[in-house]
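User: Hi! I have a protein structure encoded as tokens and I'd like to know what sequence might fold into it. I'm fairly new to this, so please keep things simple.
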């Protein structure tokens, strides 16, 4: 079951990376259409460049970090915490915006997507929590057995 938990966690992290990659690509390749989808316009070339870099670049960087964390089991939890650390504030700010601006019906789809992502990431962290502590304890025990750890 432990191995399955780690593969599920990797799957969640990979899905988040893919989502970030898709959003980033959309804003990098066609910032005018991407912005228009949210009711924004980019009337200047500088606005397009800033949207590519600010929104697209941020999402692309987030995808890259998530993919790097997929490379080893030791970094999967770090990647999940990273995704949670990005998604949770965005979700909270979006909820604030919905309350202040009254945009619930227009924001419903993205609110649901961000909430599902956060729930999946937190679930994956919960699944791997016990396993991570068992692995850490086992590694420490092996170091003690080999004499790698000095007594304090």
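Assistant: Happy to help. Inverse folding works backwards from shape to sequence: for each of the 152 positions I chose a residue that suits the local structure. Here it is:
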């Amino acid at each position: 079951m432990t191995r399955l938990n780690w593969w599920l966690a990797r799957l969640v992290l990979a899905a988040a990376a893919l989502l970030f990659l898709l959003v980033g690509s959309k804003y990098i390749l066609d910032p005018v259409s991407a912005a228009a989808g949210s009711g924004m316009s980019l009337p200047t070339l500088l606005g397009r460049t800033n949207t590519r870099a600010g929104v697209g670049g941020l999402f692309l960087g987030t995808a890259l970090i998530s993919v790097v964390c997929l490379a080893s089991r030791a970094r999967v939890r770090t990647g999940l915490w990273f995704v949670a650390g990005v998604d949770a504030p965005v979700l909270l700010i979006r909820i604030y915006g919905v309350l202040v601006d009254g945009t619930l019906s227009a924001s419903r789809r993205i609110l649901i997507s961000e909430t599902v992502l956060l729930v999946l990431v937190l679930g994956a962290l919960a699944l791997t929590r016990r396993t991570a502590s068992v692995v850490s304890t086992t590694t420490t025990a092996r170091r003690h057995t080999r004499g790698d750890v000095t007594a304090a």
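A useful reference point when you look it over: The radius of gyration is 20 Å. Feel free to ask if any position seems puzzling.
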